[in-house]
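Notes from hallway chat w/ T.B., transcribed later so I don't forget. T.B. wanted the structure written out for a chain they're using in a teaching module, and asked if we could keep both sequence and structure tokens in one place. Agreed to drop them here.
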Amino acid sequence: MGQNILGGGVNRNNVQRIVKAKAEGSNYIGVGDNLLDFGSANSFLKEDNCGKIFSFNITNGGSSAIKVALSAGGFAAGSSYLDSSNIIAEGTVATDLTCSGTPEKIDALLAYVKANPSRLRAIKIKADNESQLDYPIVYRQINPFTGYIDQKRIPAQYQRSGDNNTKVIELTDINWILGADNLLLTTIGAGRTVVISLVFGASLDTEKGLQKKADEAMANAAALGFSVD
């Protein structure tokens, strides 16, 4: 039988340690927050070291530009918020448009960010032709009460005269979150092939957080001398 939580077997030092272990506070930087997944990092201070990168390999083999949603949140095909964009997927997405993901299939990423809002730290673009860099990357935040807000980045504007390869661009001046209420839209030019890599920081991973909380609860119970069977 386990001890009553108010019983005499409680170790005061262990209780104080548990109370002080809460994540949020004036010194909060994300360390030890069970609900956050930092990948290879452990706090917001080292968020750019998470090592969470997903790449879309996209080819438009047709003679017309094609709109594509790199992240569609919780919105289905045909939603007016998508502006007639095709939702990216593994394989043939639309006539002349084929896509693949790395390191996993695209479906896995879309499902993950829909369920686990994730901070987008950078976007890397590698195109086969500089003309592709004229098409903007649009981040759309939708709020059912106040409407939506767009932020736009045009990759060509990030080209620098001294760059050895002007077909490779990195966008870092973003503070975006991909989740159920956000879209990431772009256009793939006619005949173009492009690799678009999303560099993620922290994710609000509730599934992993639930397991961490359960593990921590069991460890705390054992430290306090309670039976966990």
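Follow-up for T.B.: The longest strand covers residues 193-204. Might be a good example for the class.
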